[in-house]
Amino acid sequence: MSQPVLVIGGGVAGSVCALRLRHRGVDVHLVEKERFPRAKVCGCCIGGTGISVLQRVDLRDWILAHGQPIRKWIGSLGGRSVQIPLDSGIAISRERLDTELLARVERSGAVVHSPVSAAVDSISDEHVCVTLKGLDGSVQAQKYSAVVLASGLNASGSKRMLPWTELPHGPFGASFFAKVDQWPTGVIGMACDREGYVGVVRLEDGRVDVAAALNAGSAKLAKGSPKNRILEMLERSHLPIGSIEVTSNVRVTPPLRRSRLSGRGRLVAIGDASGYVEPFTGEGMTWGMMSGYELADLIADSRGELLTLGEQWCLRQRQLLGSRRRTCRLLTSILQNSAARYGAGQLLSRFPRFATPLIAHLNRPPD
Ligand SMILES: Cc1cc2nc3c(=O)[nH]c(=O)nc-3n(C[C@H](O)[C@H](O)[C@H](O)COP(=O)(O)OP(=O)(O)OC[C@H]3O[C@@H](n4cnc5c(N)ncnc54)[C@H](O)[C@@H]3O)c2cc1C
Predict the structure, then answer these.
(1) What's the farthest any 2 CA atoms get from each other in the chain?
(2) Which of 147, 234, 295, 313 would disulfide-bridge 263, Cβ 3.0–4.6 Å?
(3) Is the pTM of the predicted complex or chain greater than 0.85?
(4) Which domains are present in the chain?
């Protein structure tokens, strides 16, 4: 390739993509607008499929050594308490995971610019023109052979280049860290009710991460602050929380559910920048890492013929993630219904093994 490939965004999707591109010998630049380590709204849990993807970029041993293993899911569902054993699963703070990934990208020989933000100006048959802006006010125009947009839910950096196919709507995310003395290690708690759902997990460093998807809509403001809504959901639930002290700012996201054209010519999108459903199945990081890895192979295999990369990627990404996203949509629409929540709570509290096929399906290896 006459020019390097640029990855915009150093979250899990962008970093895995850059790492794999380097493993395949491609010249890569990555720009990240935040100074790491940085927190972000996330439940911080990775299941079996995500661990398999991390293995492909040589991070399995690292995550098993530094993450907190998760062995049980406790749910408060339709007024019942549900307990389901888990075989695999890791909780790890995004500060730690994303910082390690980005450091590995840098060590792999990629050129990393951070904190620098990027914006795509134009796409032609030969290259993509991008403006890079540093915190010090410096501005540079650069050309790349292809650009991978991995800029997350805010999807900045793309301007109008990749139009929405489904505008952002639905629940929004909110999270904070808390001190919850009673909460055990190795257990994910999830309270689901009419307000949405909230997950609680103890991280590798002892902090408890509390992350929620809260129903939006016109009554949103009347319902109170995200922090109070989350605390009230936990209080109403059957989770054994005890006293809880919020120890950080509350971070919120825009509406979560969205999708967009994931490629056009030499510009492609992966991770949350290409679309998102909801966090209920805890797969967002896995989807981002899987697509980062696959896209890197598509780029490397193209041997510089990148004119139709976007169109090829639209097809490949649908094959890769289509059924996983559909399962997540189905589960979350069931959760919205109070009779279905009640039925699921009744069933799973008595027969938790009914959840085994679903968990195996979610943890299946990447195709
Ligand atoms: C409430 C909630 C709970 C969740 N829980 C889980 C969970 O338990 N497990 C799970 O796997 N997933 C979970 N997710 C989803 C997960 O957080 C995301 O799917 C995942 O972080 C997406 O990764 P990404 O790399 O696409 O984007 P991000 O991680 O958001 O990274 C994007 C990066 O791009 C940078 N950036 C943005 N614009 C620019 C620009 N113009 N120039 C340069 N850099 C830029 C940002 O600073 C950021 O670092 C949850 C989400 C929510 C909302």
Answers:
(1) 62
(2) 313
(3) yes
(4) 5-362 (3.50.50.60)
